[in-house]
Amino acid sequence: MNYKSEFIQLESNLNELNSSLSSLEGKCSLLTEQIAMSELKLIKYAHKREVYRKSVELLTLVQKTTNDKTKEGLEQIITYALRFILNDTKYGLNVNFQRRGNLTELNFNLKTPDCQEPHDPLESLAGGCLDVLSFAIRIALQQLIKPKIGGFIVLDEPCKHLSTNYLANAEKFFQAINKKLNKQVIIVTHKAEFLNSENNLIKIEEGLK
Questions:
Q1: Kind of pairing, strands 153-156 and 185-188?
Q2: Which range has the worst mean pLDDT, 30-34, 67-71, 124-128?
């Protein structure tokens, strides 16, 4: 028997196995490093996910708090205006936030002496009530927006459809707003009832032809 040739063949096979083993060890080392890096990334991703989760919770809480304060402020100011001017405690306003896609909508629902079920103000035929609602919303928003909007408030025919029975109340309301909010209220109107006010008046008349 030719043991020498067999020995040579075994030695060649052993060399091939050693070469394969070295290659596998290199791949194993590379995979170990990749696994370690992947585990580190997973830890970082888990941390980021937790941070994002807490951030979403915080933003949700901030949004809810902001919405609640906005809702409360709008309802208080506008309900006060409606009851003060229209002289009836059955008037009230409900404000609701609603999501439509990525946008948040603000819905105003009015309660009146004739209908205590909150409903869309535009469904009401009371033009004077809508007048009060309109300028009360403007005043409320100026108070609630952060930072607050400075300067005066200009209202063009704010009581155009309001019954003459309530104009005196409206005049007192604007005077109260002027004092409580320390804001000058400039009213453009054809209502003669406002001319009896003690405020500064500017009367514009058509010139002689």
A1: parallel
A2: 124-128
